[in-house]
Amino acid sequence: MPTAGSKLGISRQHAQRQLGIDIRSGLHTGECEVLASGADVGGIAVHIGARVAAAAAPGEVLVSRTVKDLVAGSGLQFQDRGLRMLKGVPSKWRLFAAEDQFPHA
């Protein structure tokens, strides 16, 4: 699933760029908890994913090292964005920008 999520994030960025919209995307993977309502999920993995997205520049797809390591061999390319503090998350996290595999319009 991390490969599919990364490719979806990249293709979504490409489609929205053609509309003149730059969004921020972030991906992390880990254990999630189904909340009592049954209609939502929570947990530290969800929080980290939100913080990774918040760290992205407009038009950028950032992923955690966890995602990068899990998609090894997928053909996806990443550029190191360095260590970042993520609000509410212990320690620094190394983040990577998923490379755009699509030609720009």
From TrEMBL:
Signal peptide: none annotated. Pfam families: Guanylate_cyc. One of its GO terms (molecular function) is adenylate cyclase activity. Residues 15-90 form the Guanylate cyclase domain. One of its GO terms (biological process) is cyclic nucleotide biosynthetic process. This is Guanylate cyclase domain-containing protein. It comes from Microvirga aerilata.
